[in-house]
Structures are given as C-alpha cells and as structure tokens.
Amino acid sequence: MARLYALTLLVGALLLFAVQPMVGRMLLPALGGSPAVWNTCLVFFQGVLLLGYLYAHLLTRHLSIRKQAMLHLTLLAVVFVALPIAVWGGAPSEEAPALWLLATLTATVGLPFFALSTTSPLLQRWFSATRSRRARDPYFLSVASNVGCLAALIAYPIVIEPMLGLMEQANWWRWGYVGYVGLVTLCALAIRRRTGEPGASATGVERGQSPPVANVPDSPLRWLVLAFIPASLLTGVTQAITTDVAPMPLLWVVPLGLYLVTFIIAFTPRTRLPFGIMVRMLAVAAIAFSLTLLSGATEPWGAVLGVHLVTFFLAALVCHGRLAATRPGVERLTSFYMWMSLGGVLGGAFNALVAPIIFHRLGFVEYPVVVLVACLVRGRATPQAAWRDVVGPVMLGLGVVSLVLLAQLDVAVKWAHDLSESTGLPADMIRAAGCYGIPLLAAYTFVERPLRFALGLGALFLAGVVDPGPQGRPLHVERNFLGVVKITTSLDGQFTRMVHGSTIHGQQRNNPRPQYVAAFALPVGATSPLNELSILAATDGRWDDRHRPSTYYYPTGPAGMTFRLVVDLWQGPRRVGAVGLGTGALASYARPNHDWTFFELDPAVERLARDERYFTYLRDSSARSMNVVIGDARLRLAAEPDGSFDLLVLDAFSSDAIPIHLLTVEAFAMYERKLAPGGVILLHLSNNHLDLPPVVARVAVSMTKSLVVREYADLDVSERDGDDGKLPSVWMIAGRRLEDLGPLGKPNPGFVPVRPWYAPPWTDDRADLLRALKRGDE
C-alpha cells in the first residue's frame, strides 16, 4: 500500500517539475528571455499550486472518500482534453504582455498543472484513511514527492532537453500522465478494499485514531513564516550566485536542488534533527555570509559560492525541520499543506514582485534581510532587557563605520597594499578583514540571543553602506524587474562604469590623461595589414582619450578591426543595428552616413547611457541618427523591414542566463533576412563558462542558406591593457559570402575559421546548453 502511494506521488512530482521548464521553453520565442517572463511564470505556477492545495483541503473536508475519488478521477479525465501541451493564443499583446502570458499559461498548462498540484496533500490524506500501520503519520510520503521533483530537476537539462524536441517532450509527457492517472485509480481502489467502507469518512477509519504528530498548538501563522523564509531565500541566493559570484549557466539548479533536499531530510521518517547544533552552525555560516557580502568578495568563486549555498541550506533545513516537527495530525494535514504553500507563494512573490518596488534604489536588500530573519527565528529568544538587545548592535555598527572610514585614508590603503605584496593576499581581502573581521567575531558573542545576534548583523550591513567596495563608489543604483544596474566610479577615479552583479557592461574615462600613449607595440619587422591597422586605430584622431571606446570595444580589438576594415569602407548611407546597449561605447564607431538602432531590453540601461553625468558616447556619436528600441531584440528585429541592416551587432551573451532564442537556427534565419545585400553580422561571444563560437558555427552551416563565419579571440590582454580600460574578448563575424567579410575573410592573424561542434544545432525546439560548457582546461 505505502509503496503504491509513494510511486504515485513520485510520478506526479516528476510530471509537475518537468512541465514547468518545458512550457517556459515553448514561450521563449514568443516573449523573449526577459526575467519578467520567468518571474511571471514562477508566480503563476506557485499560485496554481496553492489553488491545488486549497482544492485538496476543501475536498477532504466536505466529501467522503468515495465521493472524493469519483470527483478527482473525473477531473483527471477532463485534463486529457488539454493534451498534448502546446502554446497557442496568437501573438503577445504589446500593451499588456503579462496578462497575455498569464492567459496563455492558463489555457496551455493551467488545468494539467492544477490536477497534478493536488497530488501530495490529497493522496496523503487518502492514505491516512487506510488500515496501513503507517497511516497515522502519512507525511513520509512527501519524501517520495520531493525525490520526484529533484529527479525531474536534474533530468530536464541533462537528459530530456538534449534528447527530445519540445513536441516530443509534450508527447512523452502525455503518456506519463496516462500512467499517473492509472496509478491514482489504483490508489482509490486500494482505499475501498483496505478500509472495507466505500463511503468511509475523510476523518479516518476510526474516529479519533490520529492524534497530532507533535504536541504543539495548531499555528497557521508559524507554518506560513517557516515556509516563507526558505522560499524567499531560494530566489535571493539564486539571484546572488548567478549575478555576483559565478555567472554560470544552469547554476540555478543547485539552490533549488538543495531546497528540495532539505524537505526530504526534514520529513524522512524517524529523522531527529539536532537543532541545537544546527542553529549554531547557521550562526557561524551567517557570520561568513556577512563577511562575504560586506567585502564584496567574488573570488575564489568556489569558496564564495560555498558560503552562499551552505548558509541557504542550513537556514532552509532549520525552517523545514521546524515545519516537520510542528506538523499536525491527519485531521489538519491538508490545512498544514495549504498554509505552507501560501508561505511559499508569498516568499516567491515578495522577491519577484514586491522587492523590486520597495527596494528600487537599494539593490537586492531582501536577500540579507531574510537571512537575518532566519537567524532571528532559529530558536527561542532568551528573556532580556530590550535596551541591551539594541545598545550592543548600535555600538558595533558605529565601530564598523569608524573602521571603514579609516580604511579609506591614504596611509591605510598603502599599508594594505604593502601587506598584500608581502603576503600574496589580495588587498581587498586584507582591507575587509580589518574592517569587518573583529566586529563579526564580536557579533558571534550574541549567538545565544537570537534578537541581539540578528540586530548585530543588521547593524554591520547598515554600516557597510559607507564602504565603496571593490567595484568603486556607487554613484547610482537602480532596480527593476530585469535586475540591478549600478553606476560606479573605479577605485582610482579614472573610469565611470555600468555594472550588473560582478560584470562590467561598459565604462568611460572620466578625464583625458595629459599624454596618451597607445598600449600597442609591433613586433620588429612586422608588416601584417592588421598590425598596421592597429597602430592607426590606436592613434585615431576621431577620439580624444575620454571618448575612446574601451572594455571589449577598444580600437585595436576585434570590434575596432571590423569597423576599420569593413564598415568604414562602405560608401553611401548605411544602417547599423546593435543588440545590447550598455554604455553605448559602440556608437563611437558611427560615421555621418550611418543610421544606428540599438535594441535594449532594460529601459534603465538606456536612461543611464543617455545620462551625461555618467556617459557621453551616445551624445557625442557622429551618426546621422541614433535610436534605441526597448524590448526583446528578437521580437523587435522581427518587426523591422527585411534587407534593412548593413551591419547587425549581437552583444547579449556575457551573462549566465544567455538568451538562447537569439542563437537558434530560426533566429539566424531572421537575421539573414534583415541583412541588406553584402551585409554582415558581428557577434560578441565573450563568456566565462560557455564556448559559443562552435555553437554559432554549427547553426550557420545548418541553415538553408549557409553563412560564412570567422572568429577572433583576443584573450591576451595584459595587466597594462587592463589599466588602460581593455578587457579580453571573443568575437565572430558572419556573412552570406566570403567577399562580404572584406579583408577579414582572408587568412590573417585576426579573424580565422572556426570548427563547428558536432552536436545538433540549437533550434527553438531544442538546445543543449550543457554540451556548450567550457572544459576545465579551456
């Protein structure tokens, strides 16, 4: 009996977690890769899950087992009319895309997802009505459900997506659903056979048989809070590690997997969690977490990643462990799951919908705040005078402010630099240890008093506001649905930068240097046209030192070479399209006969790029016209006339969540249609974790009208080049014919042919992201 129910819950969870990424991939070409799309999908799925739990609660409260089974099996049968799953509903509305998305999700997957979301609470309640010796505590079945979720989470990117197209996935999912319905039917029949009472009441086989599992009062608010904290932290830690620590594809899978593992551990039968040890471990982890955030550390990324994940894991385990310890008897089982689901919905909605509004100018504040809340609820507070719980943290915060201000003095900076040279440790690490190390050790003395401990860490975070950090002093911070954009000035005051997470998306020198000497030297006797051209570019008179493009776009790099050797040779009016605006540095290459159009997803980026207090590339461009179109690039490009662009620049692939829909066969077919005769495509493919040039080459050769591609990997940027504003980069250029590439299509030390990878090309239907990951030796 127990095995049948466990298998049914496992299969239901597999289907539930597999359908979410499948539908998301189906919607990607229609709405693009905006985080707002994924946030809206997440809220939709969490909301439907809550409705499923409410359905199970009402069903078991008001109907007999027999009527429950009949009604639920009818619902499962009705779902067949919505299969196989496929997106329909026409083009998205430009005025209200979120409403279109919610309506499409409801029509596409609403009914199947709702039916599956009822599985865990409903079947556990059914099982409690059997004569099984384990029926008095059916919560162990949730372990099977979470194992199924974890299996689907791992299998989708590793097995399902690489092997099956979306329509094949939908067909296989339909057959999996058939098997699931068969298992639910067997569970319903098993209840009738084992109870011997076809109309047995949902209150149990024997009245009063199931006392509460734990001798605690029924506390819905407590359940809600304990579920809210891990759900909020799940979104917070995912955002932090994929933007600030390691912009690595599929890294979001790790926190979600740990979240499920904590559920499995907490609800495994006869598990006795050592809460006394766990709360102390959480306090130690919170200390390390605070030091990491306050110092702005991103290296070594493995250690920093470990701090974030361990803190999240311990906080989630403590909360889920206390949930399991306070679970009620079977009479209130569905109520317990309903309140727990509501807490999860509110936790996700807080991070995805509320925090971007209330923390608009502060960044991802909710992440450390919820960590502090987790420390606050980790145990019972010791009776203490209120003023003592406040005075200690306040004194601690004032001490940190003093240390941070002292660390900014020239003598302190020199001392840290000298110590760094003698020890080999980074100067930033030494500085952070001096400012925060001792205060954090002092904060640990508050560990026995949760309120004082949480307030102490909170005081340190408030004091850290006066610390410029390794990215420089923030001049502007702005947050919206799409993330946090910061404008900072470099520590040496030379550059103003646009920063997202730990990634610099462009910079401009604040003041011209008195004497500019190009950081470029020809080998003795070199006569390469590219080398001669590099000298010309490095000393080009069109820019002064302030307006010379830097980072990935410097004149002696691949971008500069393309404009000098190809674009600048074009005669007559030309039109240039660029996906990704950043600071607008590419606009420095515009000529008076050019009409430029940037396609930018984030309106905040355009506003800041046009703000002359920070950047002037767009203002000073010599282009005949300079426009910025806001929205997903693929959707906006599709609306442009065919044959209208002489150059398309694709610069949107440096982050972790690369827009896959911009690198598919269908996307490149659209780019080719938008190119004018003789036009070319320039792609910026720098990425720390993905080897994208072979992916693009494979797509190019698989098209009906194959594109010619060449790669230029400029990775040997020296430390002196870095001081000059240059960053290593990888670029590709593509055209219909070799002749369209001009000198870049000929053998030279710059752009060279690239070998396509052997895997199938990426399409809107299938993309194997894992195979594109760089190996350790690359």
Describe what you observe in this structure.
With 778 residues, the chain is of the alpha/beta class. It contains 25 helices and eleven strands. The chain has a seven-stranded mixed sheet with strand order 7-6-5-8-9-11-10, sandwiched between helices. Strand 2 and strand 3 form a beta hairpin. Helix 16 runs antiparallel to helix 17 and helix 18 packs across helix 19. It is globular and about 85 Å long.
Short recap of the structure:
This protein is of the alpha/beta class and 778 residues long. The chain has 25 helices and eleven strands.
Oligomer: single chain
For the largest beta-sheet, the strand count, sense and barrel status come to: 7 strands, mixed
Number of helices: 25
Radius of gyration: 29 Å
Question: What is the general shape?
Answer: globular
Round the mean pLDDT to the nearest integer and report it: 78
Poorly predicted spans: 195-212, 514-539
Number of strands: 11
Q: Main attributes?
A:
single chain, 778 residues, alpha/beta, 25 helices, 52% helix, 10% strand
